[in-house]
Design goal:
With 206 residues, the protein is α/β, with parallel strands linked by helices. It has one domain: Alpha/Beta hydrolase fold, catalytic domain (Rossmann fold), CATH 3.40.50. Helices cover 34% and strands 17% of the residues. It has a seven-stranded mixed β-sheet with strand order 1-3-2-4-5-6-7, with helices on both faces.
Length: 206
């Protein structure tokens, strides 16, 4: 497997490095990923972004591919962390990237886990939960979720039996990208900024 290429934001002097992976359909330099990496960098974190092999291959030839299998995605996480070897590490990502991080967070000894829009279940299939490991996770975890995210709304998530190590930050009226409807009177920038404040506060206080 080709070693990961990274994009870095924030100061190299930061006491903690947050490694972020992208979601299933957009690369590490998507507007969402860039906004969060840069915003968290300004808030005192060192942020490193990387891409899974299928997305890196798309960057090379422009051909869209489905995500790699779970085993390959998890091994990519292990290799990314091994390549960086930060003194103090937190991991996470957008949607699928955060979900894969959550599956290896305890194994990697991460100081924290950040999930930006966690896919609790496929849209329209609330019975297909992806929460079993979150019931026992030991890594301090913050999930940032839109209240109307089709992958898990606030009304749905409050009934899940999640670990005491896990906290939730709700983006009001947010969808899977934390973006609210215009009628809500809120903006994407407001939801994103509040989410970044929550993430930085959670990680830097630990």
């Amino acid at each position: 497997m080709t070693p990961a290429r990274f994009l870095f934001d924030g100061s190299d002097e930061g006491s903690l490095t947050l490694v972020l992976a992208h979601g299933a359909g957009a690369p590490m330099d998507s507007p969402f990923m860039t906004a969060f990496a840069e915003g968290l960098g300004r808030r005192g974190l060192r942020v490193a972004r990387f891409e899974f092999p299928y997305m890196a291959a798309r960057r090379g030839d422009g051909r869209k591919r489905p995500p790699d299998g779970q085993a390959k995605l998890l091994e990519s996480w292990r290799q990314a962390v091994a390549a960086l070897q930060p003194a103090r590490l937190a991991i996470g990502g957008k949607s699928m990237g955060g979900r894969m991080a959550s599956l290896v967070a305890d194994e990697l000894g991460a100081a924290g886990l950040i999930c930006l829009g966690y896919p609790f279940h496929p849209p329209g299939k609330p019975e297909r939960l992806r929460t079993a490991h979150l019931e026992a996770i030991e890594t301090p975890t913050l999930i940032v979720q839109g209240t109307r995210d089709p992958f898990g709304t606030r009304a749905e998530v409050r009934d899940y039996g999640l670990s005491d190590a896990l906290r939730l930050h709700w983006a009001e009226d947010g969808n899977h990208d934390l973006v609210p409807r215009k009628a809500s009177g809120r903006s994407a920038e407001e939801n994103w900024s509040e989410a970044m404040d929550a993430v930085a506060g959670f990680l830097l206080a630990s």
